[in-house]
Design goal:
Residues 7-61 form the HTH lacI-type domain. The protein has 340 residues and is an alpha/beta fold. The chain is built from eleven helices and twelve strands.
C-alpha cells in the first residue's frame, strides 16, 4: 500500500483474504469472529492504516469515534485490567480508546478536558475520582462521561465500580468469625470516596458484632505502601494494639506486613492482615495476602457500555452500578493468639 490514497475496507478484505462483511464484523463485533480470522483482519488493518484513516474521516465530519480515558497513574495494577474491559467493549461498537495520563497533576486533567471540548473525543472515562479544577466553566459542554475505580467526588457523573461497603463487610466478617475483636482500619480518607466507603463497611461490621465505638481503631492513609508502614508505627506508640489489620487496599496491607516483619512479628500467628483489590503482589508476598478481588475487566466493560448508552442519548435511571468483589482467603489471617 502507498500513502497516495486512503485505505478502504476493500483493501483490508483483500489483504486478509476475507469478505468485506467479515472485516466489518471483526471491527464492530469481534466476539462473533474466530480468533484466527480476527488476527488476519487486525494485521491487514495495521498494514493498510485503515483504522487511522477512518478516525481521520470522523474528525473531518465534526464527530469522533474515540473515547478519552483519563487516569492519574497508569502504573496502578488495577488500571490495566479495567482498561482491557473498556477497550474490548469500545472496539466491539466501533470506538477506539485514547489514554490521558494526568500523573496526579490537576493542570494536566484540565488540559484533557479542553481536548474533549474540541470534539477530538466523543466521551470520557474518568479514573481520577475528581473532575479537573476549573471544569465548572465547561460543564455545559462536557461530553458524556462515566467514572470508574473511584466515585467522582465533585462531578455528579455516573459511576461503575466495586461495592466497597459490601466488600469491606466481607473482610471484617471474616476477621470477626476468626475471633478478632480489636481490629484496626488503615487507610481512612476524607477525599477518596472509595476509601471512606470501605471504612463504612468496617464500621457496619463491627457494629453488627456488638463491638463498641470506643474499641475501634482508625488511621488515615493515602493507599501507598509507605502509608501502611507509617500507620503501623503510629499504632505501636499506643498502649493497646489490635490483633488484626483491615487495610483499605493491598498496597497499604503490604506496607503493614513489611513493617510487622521488620519488627520480628509473624503473620498471621501474631497479627492478621487483610487487603482490598487483589493486585498481583498479593500472591507474591509472604505470607500471601487475604484480600477482596475487584472484577476489574467486568467493571471496564460495564463502564464503557454505560458511556455508549449516554452517547446514544439513552439515560439509565440509576447513577451508580456496583459489582460485588470476591473474598480471596489466603495465608495472612488466622485466629488471634490466646491471651491477645
Amino acid at each position: 500500500m502507498t500513502n497516495s490514497s486512503p485505505a478502504t475496507i476493500e483493501d483490508v478484505a483483500r489483504i486478509a483474504e476475507v469478505s468485506i462483511a467479515t472485516v466489518s464484523r471483526a471491527i464492530h463485533t469481534p466476539e462473533k469472529v474466530a480468533n484466527s480470522t480476527r488476527l488476519k483482519v487486525n494485521q491487514a488493518i495495521a498494514i493498510t492504516g485503515y483504522t487511522t484513516n477512518a478516525m481521520a474521516r470522523s474528525l473531518r465530519l465534526g464527530r469522533s469515534n474515540m473515547i478519552l480515558v483519563v487516569a492519574p497513574d497508569i502504573g496502578d495494577p488495577n488500571f490495566s485490567s479495567i482498561l482491557v474491559g473498556l477497550e474490548n467493549e469500545a472496539r466491539s461498537h466501533g470506538y477506539g480508546v485514547l489514554i490521558g495520563h494526568t500523573q496526579n497533576e490537576p493542570q494536566r486533567g484540565l488540559e484533557y478536558l479542553k481536548f474533549l471540548n474540541s470534539n477530538q473525543a466523543a466521551g470520557m472515562i474518568l479514573f481520577t475520582g475528581i473532575l479537573p479544577f476549573g471544569h465548572q466553566s465547561m460543564t455545559a459542554r462536557l461530553p458524556p462521561s462515566v467514572g470508574v475505580f473511584e466515585p467522582v467526588f465533585n462531578g455528579g457523573i455516573p459511576y461503575v465500580g466495586v461495592d466497597d461497603v459490601a466488600g469491606a463487610r466481607k473482610a471484617i466478617d471474616l476477621l470477626i468469625a476468626e475471633g478478632h475483636r480489636r481490629i484496626a482500619f488503615i487507610g481512612d480518607s476524607r477525599t477518596r470516596l472509595a476509601f471512606s466507603r470501605r471504612r463504612e463497611g468496617y464500621e457496619e461490621g463491627l457494629a453488627a458484632a456488638g463491638i463498641p465505638q470506643s474499641a475501634r481503631i482508625i488511621l488515615e492513609g493515602d493507599g501507598t505502601i509507605e502509608s501502611g508502614r507509617l500507620a503501623l508505627e503510629q499504632l505501636f506508640m499506643r498502649d493497646t494494639l489490635p490483633t488484626a489489620f483491615m487495610c483499605v487496599n493491598d498496597q497499604t496491607a503490604i506496607g503493614v506486613m513489611l513493617g510487622l516483619t521488620a519488627r520480628g512479628y509473624d503473620i498471621p500467628r501474631d497479627f492478621s492482615v487483610t487487603g482490598f483489590d487483589d493486585v498481583p503482589q498479593a500472591t507474591f508476598i509472604n505470607p500471601t495476602l487475604t484480600t477482596l478481588r475487584q472484577p476489574r475487566t467486568a467493571i471496564g466493560r460495564q463502564a464503557m457500555a454505560l458511556l455508549l448508552q449516554l452517547l446514544a442519548n439513552e439515560h439509565p435511571d440509576e447513577t451508580e452500578f456496583l459489582l460485588m468483589p470476591d473474598l480471596i482467603v489466603r495465608n495472612s489471617v488466622s485466629r488471634p493468639r490466646s491471651g491477645k
